Amino acid sequence: MHSKRKHVLFVPYAQQISHLHLDSPLALCYDGLEIIEIGTGSVSVSGEEHPVKIYTIKDIARKAGVSVTTVSRVLNKRPDVNQATRERVERVMAECHFVGNANARSLKQTDGENVAIILRGRENPFLNALAEAVLQFTNGLEASFLVEYVDEKGDEFQTAARLYREKRLTGCIFLGGHIDERAQVLQQLDIPMVFATNSARNAELTRAGSVFIDDRMMGRAAMETLLQAGHTRIAIFGGVRQGDDGFALRYRGAMEALEAAGVPFDEERYVDTRFSLRGAYETARTFFEAKPDTTAVFAMSDTVAMGVIRALQDMGRNVPRDVSVIGYDGIEMGKFYIPRLTTVAQPIQEIARESVAMLMEMLEQHEEPRHITVDAELILRESVGPAKA
């Protein structure tokens, strides 16, 4: 005769049911074939039906007065849970004999918000600083955030589609990259998304918002800085010039400044470069061997500007005495580089804050996407000087 007591039955992951709480005098044996069939409300033991209470992660969340995402974070021993909340959730799990299922935890909970932060350009210090700022503004939010790095020549949109399938994404923030025909795959995802640093205003993406600076205006301001210093033989180190993304708009602004000043642009002085120190360094050496009379460079990122300056110095050229260089982004390193870098500074904290806030508004309040322009700043330092007579 068995004494009457509560039993807990562990079952494999199936429809997010991880434990059964059985009020029965029977001693259950999971591996001993006594259990024949499990139903949604009962279990058949040796042919006899017994009532079953099924505890799911939703039940634990309801009993503890928290979200499913919070329970998931406690199960996964995440550090970003308030200690009092953690103890309350653990107490409820203990009372329900709920310890979770390793297989279930390996999958994202479909009830929680799962957001991907996709960064295109793993070697870009500006985007890495932006990703860090975005994560800071996610602290305390119920959604789970993951960061995915993509090479600058990779496809961030195919990456989003893959994560949507694998991680059951409910939202996405894109850092860097550019919006082109590749973005059509995003129309199939039907999730809110935010482009940080790129305008999605003209993209045919009904669920996409964006936070960005006026790249056209700031590209013009950067070029005007070089023109005002007397430079006319100016090179531009950038990326794709087509479309409406940041690089294309910076280029258009620069062309407007040249046209207004009556200075023709030599197409051979446009350089398509990788946005890394090594890539810019190697490209700059090749370029200046072919165009040694160039007196100034507008680099469309600070990383590129630093690679160009290093190349010039190794070739025996002084910055800014022989060649002036202006960068773009305003990364911290530029303040301490030799020479200190003249640059267009993007407001990292504001872009990050607005991007996270907009996405959460779309996720939680079903708000429509918006397109927000934030202010940038032209910072004059040491890397731009007067053109040689």
Key phrases:
389 residues, alpha/beta, 434 Repressor (Amino-terminal Domain), Rossmann fold, 3 domains, 6-stranded parallel sheet, 6-stranded mixed sheet, 11 helices, elongated, disordered N terminus
Which residues form runs of ≥5 with pLDDT under 50? Answer: 1-40, 102-110
Number of strands: 17
The share of residues in extended strands comes to: 15-25%
Subunit organisation of the chains = single chain
CATH architecture of the largest domain: 3-Layer(aba) Sandwich
Count of folded domains? 3
| Alpha-carbon distance between the two ends | 106 Å
Q: What would you call the structural class?
A: alpha/beta
- Kindly state the percentage of residues in helix: 25-40%
Strand order of the largest sheet: 7-6-8-9-10-16
Shape descriptor: elongated
How would you state the average pLDDT, rounded?
84
Structural write-up:
It is a single chain. This protein has helices at 57-64, 68-75, 83-95, 102-105, 125-137, 156-167, 215-228, 246-261, 277-290, 302-314, 348-364, and strands at 5-14, 17-24, 35-38, 42-45, 48-56, 114-120, 144-150, 171-175, 193-196, 208-213, 234-238, 270-272, 296-299, 324-329, 342-345, 371-374, 377-379. The protein has 3 domains: 5-105, lambda repressor-like DNA-binding domains (434 Repressor (Amino-terminal Domain)); 114-213 and 348-375, Response regulator (Rossmann fold), CATH 3.40.50; 215-346, Rossmann fold (3-Layer(aba) Sandwich), CATH 3.40.50.2300. The protein is of the alpha/beta class. The longest helix has 17 residues, at 348-364. The strands form 3 sheets. The protein has a 6-stranded parallel β-sheet, with helices on both faces. Strands 12-11-13-14-15-17 form a 6-stranded mixed β-sheet, with helices on both faces. Strands 1-2-5-4-3 form a 5-stranded antiparallel β-sheet. Helices cover 34% and strands 24% of the residues. It is built from 11 helices and 17 strands. Helix 5 (125-137) links the parallel strand 6 and strand 7.
